[in-house]
Amino acid sequence: MKIGVSLAILLLTFSNSVVADCKSEIADRLEADLNLTYQKFDQTNDSGFRLLEASGCYAEAASLIKAFIKHNNSKENALIWHLAQMEGFAGNYEQAITHAKSVLIDNEDLSNFPMHWNDFVLGNIAFWSKNEQSLKKHIDNIQINSGFKPNKINLKYLSKLLANFDSSYREALL
């Protein structure tokens, strides 16, 4: 019994310190990162929102991306997609779905560029909506052009979601 209580206290203390660290990190990032270039903020692994992501501060990473978008009047789809992912990692599936829907490509033409972007996004939405059949359908659609490297990467990603369908988004992708 003592071990169980001690473990619970230790986990609660750790949880509180993670929250405190995330609050401190977001404050630092808001001060330092809003004037970064899009490339540095979004596409560089050791910079911008990715520092919060690496620390497991997903809700804070989403907040930072929103602040960056507003501050810079950014329109990049990749940035909005990463916002959707961070909301998903934070467990905010409704927000993730809203943001993900906004990056779908109208009249996606696979004959010019065979990356199944919409199927990838819709596969994630299917996971967040807990629609396993829809997720399978989008995996099958991507499978058609699986020799194309971006599709191969996205297929692996969605396959992890399917294999871990009953897990959280974050846990499914570990």
TrEMBL record:
Residues 1-20 form the signal peptide. Keywords: Signal. This is Tetratricopeptide repeat protein. The lineage of its organism: Bacteria, Pseudomonadati, Pseudomonadota, Gammaproteobacteria, Alteromonadales.
